[in-house]
Amino acid sequence: MKVRSVPVSYIIEKMIKQELAKLKQPVTIKLFIDESKELETKKTLSILKSYKENSNNKLNLDIITLGKGTDLIERYQIERFPTILLIDAEGNECIRYLAAPQGSEVKPFIQSLQVLSGRKNYYEETLKTNLDNTKTSTIKVMVTKSCAYCPELVNMVSQFALGSSGKVKAEIIDILENPDIGDHYNIETVPYIVINNGEPLIGLISPNELLEKILKV
Amino acid sequence: MEGIDLEKIYDLIVLGGGPTAIGCAIYAKRFAMEVLIVGKTFGGLIATTHIVENYPAISSISGQGLMELFKEHMNSLEIPYISDEIKNIEKVNDHFELHSFFQNFKAYSVCIATGSVRRKLGIPGEEEFAGKGVSYCATCDGPFYKDKVVCVIGGSDSAAKEALFLAQNTKKVYIIYRGEDLRAEPINKKRVLESDKIEIIYNTNVVEIIGEGKVKSIVFDNGKRLDIDGVFIEIGSVPNSDIAKHIGVDINDHNEIKINRKSETNIPGIFAAGDVADAPFKQAITGVAEGVIAAYSAFDYVKEMNIEY
Ligand SMILES: Cc1cc2nc3c(=O)[nH]c(=O)nc-3n(C[C@H](O)[C@H](O)[C@H](O)COP(=O)(O)OP(=O)(O)OC[C@H]3O[C@@H](n4cnc5c(N)ncnc54)[C@H](O)[C@@H]3O)c2cc1C
Q: What ipTM score was computed for the predicted complex, to two decimals?
């Protein structure tokens, strides 16, 4: 018997179109590239260009090339290429992607774009009250493309970053594309979260558990 | 937050983000009910499996792909979904109030489709090496074991499928099962038996996981040791029924919520379905069916309250 498979890529393409149509205000994505890394650059560029094409001109893609945009590379402390930054209207970094927003990572990426574009953030009120007197934390979320639980966690941490008035910064890292980071933390499971280089959190956690951990740090 | 009204009393709030919850909400929405889904994680347990070949009308799809289809259907009906965990439910006058750390919600009826969490073995080394060689999700952690030797503990269909997935990239996969014969679907059992990378060790329990920083070996109840890089535990799951217990919903000895053929619990207005409930078969399609029945019953329940739509 020939097994017929449903092409998931088709569903995702459709979702990209539908969801990007909901963008309200323009949003800027900054993409930092190193032209000598031809393959990675080409892949990331083509993904982000397809987002832009489907956004009714609501997405601006700002491409900064290593060697040509030194001040921005310094300002945002870019050490790896490609790096994708989601920034707020004032140009502050909210979410850093060392991962390609494709496959199941499309959903959290677009949800972040929607919030940056004016959609209300579910966690915002509670985060503002709770994080008022805390220092800024950086949350690294280590993922792989095949990880089923990762997109949900990426979304949660991203929404925290967007709803925390700068108190939380998110970094989404594909550790198969950045194996040295995986090795550094000795990671053998994902999702794997590190808040300010503290003790790792492994597996799925709920939003209230995440908030508790941030407050403890 | 689009389309979510925290002041409103919803006709039905569905708890869960798995197939059961989405199936329930799709029917409720088509009954013109005001429905909201609150799920701790979207996708549920089925999203963790690499292949589903028994969901009618879809010959073959990944678990995540299947849940993308569910999401597409949910979005096309504009059913609001919130990522959050409900901590408790209380009855207030004619409705229920549901509390999470972030928000409170109100509904005339509630469907609990909170599924289950993976069961732990409870042996020395399991907790110590969690994330350092001990895993409960092959699709999540399988890629870390390329060309390595791993084992799957368990003998169910899920265990067989996890072993087949791991065999794609690893050097060798042992299935360690306390029984005499795999309980997998015949088609998956055949695939396992035909795989030259999978070896089954029957009638054996793992009693300890040993390592240094990461897993090195496992110890069997017959005293023998096996050197291993990764241990995947697939021995069933424990229902997420605490929330139901707190409001007085009847639970059986296995911690499953007792439901009748209308997916009703002992508390009027509270329904339950899927892996958290006491039906004997736990599959996506059976969960969806129970969820759909819960939607019908919730519709009747709310209609009898004479609430205007
Ligand atoms: C490895 C593996 C392979 C499998 N393969 C198949 C297969 O091929 N075919 C098949 O039909 N079935 C398969 N199953 C079984 C299938 O996954 C389950 O029967 C199905 O997922 C049950 O759906 P559910 O929605 O009832 O529960 P779940 O899928 O467990 O979903 C429960 C949801 O509730 C959420 N939740 C929990 N507590 C709360 C709370 N307090 N508030 C809000 N949300 C909450 C969870 O986060 C989760 O999203 C497999 C299972 C495993 C483990």
A: 0.79
